[in-house]
Amino acid sequence: MRSFKTDHLLILLLCILSGALVFEINASIRQPVVVEGDTAPDFTITADNGQTVTVPHFQGKLLVLNFFATWCGPCIEEVPSLSEFAKQYADKGVTVLSISVDQNEQAYKNFVAKYKPAFLTVRERNLHEKFGTFMYPETYLITADGKVLRKIAASADWSTPDVSQYFDGLLRTL
User: Fold this and answer.
1) Which domain, by its residues, includes 112?
2) Residue 107: inside a domain
3) Active-site residue list
4) What is the pLDDT of residues 54-112, one digit of tens each?
């Protein structure tokens, strides 16, 4: 039979653990989630090729900001069409920046060596949290003044005629 003191200690421990759980749930609910129409969080990041991209003052009309992970199948499938898109729109004022959230630096380096993306890449493990991104791939279309025009929370085929029509129309208005 437990003592009165042991019961009180167990109740106190249960209260502390419950409080910690409530705190963590509250903190996760309050995480920022960037959506269409929001202003993108400011950031400055240097891509692997040395080019610096700063929001909201980057060079170009439109930033295609893509978060990915090397272990993500849909992310891998997206690379070829995103590379073609980046080549097609580079001279039209579109910058494509893909940010790996990988913990393993070597996995990231192997990914870049194997798939040879034709767009800016960098491994950075914290920026995705400012956007509220936790599933990959996730892509944001951001204007030069930092406004989020669109959020794509899935992989995309960037080589379709619909995508070309959308971007051609969008670039005429920016």
Assistant:
1) 43-173
2) yes
3) 72, 75
4) 886 676 789 999 999 999 999 999 999 999 999 999 999 999 999 999 999 999 999 99
